[in-house]
Structure formats: structure tokens, C-alpha cells
Amino acid sequence: MITKLNACVKILLLVLTAVSTSCCYAAQSSDSFTFTMTATIIGPQCMVNNNENIVVQFGDVDITKIDGSSYLRKQLDLHLTCEHLQNNQLTLQVYGASAQFNTALLAVPEKPGLGVRLLNNGTPQAINEDFTLNYGDNTILEAVLDKDVDATLMGGEFTASATLRVTYQ
Q1: Closest CA to 93 of 135, 126, 50
Q2: Those residues with Cβ within 8 angstroms of residue 95's Cβ, 6 or more apart along the chain or in another chain
């Protein structure tokens, strides 16, 4: 894009020089002129959830029902909007601390035996690993709780956090 922009600027300057030169030779004057050129370079950009945090509320959780696949399965509302993409292929990654008992799960710091599994269109998606999607496709990203079979979970509140990275061209 920059190469094309530079070529356009060079062509414009050559045209202005040619016009300026012919004027000067015809009039035999030493007048000069100033021109101002402004440009806006528009590159690709994407926004997730209108730049607001994506919050998933699990509510009250029955520890005995946590299964890592269906109990309290929650959809993440991505609301992904992109402009000026060169192609529709996006690379996403959910980046965060992984659970000690399973590195594919997002860690829950207050509960070492508890983790959050991500599902990409129903298939487990490991955190910190890239996955691709085509912009405009209906991709469903979900979160579900999972636990270490050897852990004894205690009641209480918990939080987990991650960053969604979107790479595009």
C-alpha cells in the first residue's frame, strides 16, 4: 500500500513539475507556488465487543456436576467487527494462565483444582494456542467449567481472566 501511495505522489509531483515548468518557460517569470497535500491512510482494524470486557457469569455452581463439557456451558459474546481487511481470515488466541492440572484450561487462581475449558464450535480449544476463523462466519466460542479429578473443591467465589488476541491482515 505504501509503495502504491509513493508512486501516486511521484506521479502527482511530476505532473505538477511539468505544469510548473511549462508555465515558467512560457511566462519567463520566477513565480513559485505552494501546494498542500493531505492523505488519510486507512489500514485494517478489528474491534471485539465494542472494546468492552466480555463477562461470563456462571452463577451458583454445584461442584458435583462440573463435567468440563455441558454443565453451565456459557457462550461468549464476541461481537467482532472489522474494517478494511485484505482477506477475511483472522487468527485468534485466548491468552492467559493455564491450570496446573491441565494446561489447555484457563486457570482459576482461587481454586487450583478448577479450570475453564474453552470450546470453539463445540470442540475443545486450548488456551494460548492460535485458531483461525473467517470474518463473517458464525463462530461460537463457549466456556465451561472443568475440574481436577483428584482435587477437593471448596465453595466460594472465583474469577478467571484472559485476553483475546485477534491477528488480521
Answers
A1: 126
A2: 127, 128, 162, 163, 164, 165
Boundaries of every domain in the chain:
1-41, 45-167
Q: Residue 127's pLDDT band (boundaries 50, 70, 90)? A: very high
Q: Alpha helices of the chain — where are they, by DSSP H? A: 2-27
Residues in the chain: 169
Residue 73's pLDDT is 95
**What is the CATH architecture of 45-167?**
Sandwich (2.60)
DSSP letters spanning 78-106: --EEEES-SSSEEEEEEE-PEETTEEEEE
The amino acid at residue 151 is A
| pTM for this model (two decimals) | 0.72
How many Å apart are CA 117 and CA 106, to the nearest integer? 7
pLDDT at 110: 93
The 10s digit of each residue's pLDDT in 149-167 is 999 999 999 999 999 998 8
